Amino acid sequence: MPVPRRGTCRPPRPPDPTDPVRRADRLFEIIQILRRARGPVTADAIAAELETSRRSVYRDIAALTAQRVPIRGEAGIGYVLEQGFDLPPLMLTADEIEAVVLGAQWVAAHADPALARAAADVLAKVSAVVPAALRGLIEVPSVGTPPRQDPPVGGAIDVARLRAWSQQGRKLAIAYVDEAGRASERTVWPLLVGYLDAVRVLVGWCELRADFRMFRIDRLRTVDFLDARYPERRAALRRRWLAAMQARHGPEIRPAG
After folding, report:
1. Contact 31, 69 (CB under 8 A)
2. Cα(221)–Cα(31) distance, rounded to whole angstroms?
3. How far apart are CA 36 and CA 40, in angstroms?
């Protein structure tokens, strides 16, 4: 076999699919794919995302089920990870850590004070549990978002309490002024608080209009936090809202997370 001349190098070896380290990463990625999916995922879809063969996916799924990972599969339908299964928090990739860092930076700059504090707490907790080799991604991040230049608009309203009422499914009685200066009083079923770059918005079902509406929080003059719960489950209300948004703006509207 000829010996390479000085200054030359051999071409890199192709990745070995039997390499135990590579396979362990792939098993972890399969769990991640199934965990974030909202329905069954086919072997072809998993193979395409991992850039491997369908045969390898079949072997990996068999290995995971042998390790008592609760994966259900049906021919022609796909695989589902049963609820209740989770992974240790230490198993984060570098990209996942940077996603957390970038999201926490944005929340700290744009959200209300309670969420900003929570973002800082999340980074501290992640930094405490990740391996030392990855801790620099948090302490000296390579991703960033610009800081807010101006204070958020609508700071007089208790946004944290708006979020709490949305989570609890309780009604709000609001006095609102639209962009044309028209005042109105409404009862709203709050669904979520949206944080945009310049403003914050309250999304919910408006009893006055019998439809979903988006209210800029800086245009809320008063908010009465009512004890009454609205009659619909939040999950069902969210599905109706998403369906309404898709009907108005097209099927490209997708829920986050």
Report:
1. yes
2. 47
3. 11
